[in-house]
Amino acid sequence: MGVIESKFADIVWANAPLSTSDLVQLCGARLGWKRTTTYTVLKKFIARGIFENDSRTVRVLVSKEDFYAKQSALYVERSFGGSLPGFLAAFTSQKKLSEQEIREIEEIISGHAK
């Protein structure tokens, strides 16, 4: 998903359920879009099963958190053969983790340990 599509999705996630006319107004004000652009992008998200337009009311089918979790998993799968350690090694080679980030990652790992 591109940056503009991300901004569109954030508008929907933050305001849903909302009428299509409200969505057109929000996208016009925040993104400078015309009605046709808003509907074109909305149709793409509907086709992907992320949002629905039921009787001119836009509703969320996939939460923002679930969407980005799936996108992250797909990225790790495609780019690192599904290896989370491989991803973390690549990520941390370019960015030093803070002590707080390290503690948070350790908590996540220990929460999933069996």
Keywords:
mainly alpha, 9% strand, elongated, Arc Repressor Mutant, subunit A, 3-stranded antiparallel β-sheet, 114 residues, 2 domains
Describe this entry's structure for a reader:
The protein has 114 residues and is mainly alpha-helical. The chain has two domains: 3-64, Arc Repressor Mutant, subunit A; 84-114, no CATH class. The protein is built from six helices and three strands. The protein has a three-stranded antiparallel β-sheet with strand order 1-3-2. Helix 1 crosses helix 2. The radius of gyration is 18 Å and the shape is elongated. It starts with a helix and ends with a helix. The model has no long low-confidence stretch (mean pLDDT 94).
Shape: elongated
CATH superfamily of the largest domain: Winged helix-like DNA-binding domain superfamily/Winged helix DNA-binding domain
Number of domains: 2
How are the strands of the biggest sheet laid out side by side?
A: 1-3-2
Q: How many helices in DSSP terms?
A: 6
Structural class: mainly alpha
Strand content: 5-15%
Quick overview of this protein structure:
This protein is 70% helix and 9% strand. By secondary structure, it is mainly alpha-helical.
What's the structural blueprint in terms of helices and strands?
Layout: H1 3-15, E1 18-19, H2 20-31, H3 35-47, E2 51-54, E3 57-60, H4 64-80, H5 84-94, H6 99-112
Antiparallel strand pairs: 1-3, 2-3
